[in-house]
Amino acid sequence: MNNEKKIKSFVMEVDIAVPELGNNTADAERLKEAVKKKYGIESLSVPLTVLKKIPSSIRKWDHRIKLILFEDLRGWFVAGIRNPDDVEPVCGIAADIGTTRIVLRILDLETGKNLGERGFDNPQTVIAPDVLARIRHAEQDAGRNELQSLVIDAVNANILSLCRSCSIDISSVYLFCGAGNTAMTHLFLGIDPSHIIREPYIPCVNVPEPFKAREIGLNMNSEAVVFLFPNIGSYFGGDLISGILYAGIHKKEFPCIMVDVGTNAEVVVGNSDWLIACAGAAGPALEGGMSDMGMTAGPGVIDTVKIDRETGDIKIHTIDERAAIGLCGSGMIDLAAGLFLSGMIDIRGKFAGEKCHGRLYEKDGISYFRLIDKDCSGTGKDIVLSQTDIDSLTSSKAAMYSILEVMVNNTAGLAFDDLSKFYVAGTFGSFINPKSAISIGMLPDIPLEKFEVLGNSSLGGAAKLLLDPDCFEELNKIRQSITYIELNVNQEFMNIFSGAKFYPHTDRSRFPSVK
Fold it and tell me: 499, 509 in Cβ contact below 8 A?
């Protein structure tokens, strides 16, 4: 975008010169000239479906027109036209296309107002909860079509519901901007993702070009355009690129770090001059993948736990303050921190039975810690944490810390204290208590004021792009400036991992605040 004039919105209004004898400039050319004069856009593409509407529309609207434009790698194009006197808002949908959960936000593209938001479970989980099984299911045309239909139908239903809740006609939605990991992007588009998981791990596409919503069955305005954030490779997707855009790491003077924990732990370190990224397996125990009582955040799920070090009394909080049904990642980290600091687990992460205040029991050779009695739970069963759960968490927290040390210390050549900000993203990041994560040695022991919770940064970045055309150029800069690191060939990672499998670490000097 190399125009001198600041373009503040994808919705633009222009006056078109009235035709007259002696000047045979065509309608489309007069429209382009008006856009160039007012907004500095040198090149504008007008698709045939829009061209067909222009002659009658501009005369009916007294040679005034409201344009919905968008941009791709080739330049600007018209995504729709409207009567400038219409009071109905011109809308866009920002989407976080997650493996487990999808979140949509409807925005007024002219005012920037958030008109509504809706989250729902990704319906592809009925086929398989994990993305690897979905990829295998998608190897055949029938399976791939099934997975795509599930997600498109669910998105359509929720867009319609959002529009109705805002009293907006669905034809007023002209842009859809989505961000997902590489596999989810392929499944959303109905593209074979099978080579993502086979050597040499090559996706079909890293930079999908914008396309008409109707091409994949999305129900919006007939001219609506879909833009999906680009990927860097098989394991670093558009959701992370969107998160970088949202956090603004690529604009920072001093080095920052962003961590997003889901199926994997994805990490970005850098500033305006450089960006280094990686993805590694550190998430399953935190997302409910390893624990009978573990689950993703939702009503009734325990998100915070506090343990009195002296008495062992436990206080919990559940989402929506409903009866407890299980633990999410943040609750599990709080619980582990409380157990360690009160001496109920030792530095190896093993239960110390004599200090567990009668809450510990054994079944089939496995120790269980009773967190909530069945009479007080929302399931009618005890809510427990097993030694197996703790061992899984220990591996996850060790992997997380090792990834951070490899990225910050070994790769970037920085100390953790050199970081000006530590951004924590995603649903996990919305609930995590950094102090608890530091206490178990999952996050580095840096001042708490450096931590900043971003929430759903994938959705935030998608919404930001819809409301600021300059973000398209920023997006390309981010994509081109990232250096991706493969952790699975990094020997230092395994060396660091061994030391990090203790609480908080074999080297206690790394965690001076943990007493």
Answer: no
Radius of gyration of the chain (CA): 26
Topology of the domain covering 248-284+393-510: Nucleotidyltransferase; domain 5 (3.30.420)
Give the whole-angstrom CA distance, residue 143 versus residue 127: 9
Assigned token pair, 284: 């399953």
pLDDT at 1: 45
Taking 3-state DSSP, the helix, strand and coil percentages for the chain, each rounded to the nearest 5, stand at 40, 25, 35
- Output phi, psi for 258, to 5 deg: -130, 135
In the chain, where the domains are located: 11-82, 91-228, 248-284+393-510, 296-386
Kind of pairing, strands 211-212 and 451-455?
A: unpaired
Report the alpha-carbon distance of residue 498 to residue 493 in Å, rounded. 9
DSSP secondary structure string, 224-251? -EEEEPPPSBTTB-HHHHHHHHHHTGGG
Predicted confidence at residue 431, as pLDDT, reads: 75
Look up residue 165 and give its amino acid: S
Contact 385, 335 (CB under 8 A): yes
| pLDDT for position 263 | 64
pLDDT grade for 289, boundaries at 50, 70 and 90? very low
DSSP code, position 328: -
Indicate the DSSP class of residue 411. I
Instruction: Please spell the DSSP secondary structure of 256-300, one letter per residue.
Output: EEEEEESSSEEEEEE-SS-EEEEEES--GGGTTSS-SSB--S-TT
Beta bridge pairs of residue 279: 266
Those residues with Cβ within 8 angstroms of residue 449's Cβ, 6 or more apart along the chain or in another chain: none
Quick one: three-class SS letters along 361-409?
Answer: EEECCEEEEEEECCCCCCCCCCEEEEHHHHHHHHHHHHHHHHHHHHHHH
Report pLDDT for 290.
Answer: 39
CATH node for 11-82: 3.10.20.880
Percent of the chain past pLDDT 70, that is, above it, reads 95
Q: Indicate the SS3 state at residue 68.
A: strand
The pair of three-digit structure tokens given for residue 474, joined into one six-digit string: 């920023």
The first and second tokens of residue 272, run together, are 């305006």
pLDDT for the residue 63 = 95
332: part of which helix (H) or strand (E)? Answer: helix 329-341
Q: What is the dihedral of CA 120, 422, 493, 414, to 10 degrees?
A: 160
Residue type, 338: G
What CATH number belongs to 91-228?
Answer: 3.30.420.480
Q: 3-class DSSP state for residue 72?
A: strand
What tens digit of pLDDT does each residue of 142-180 get?
999 999 999 999 999 999 999 999 999 999 999 999 999
**Domains 11-82 and 248-284+393-510 alike in fold:** no
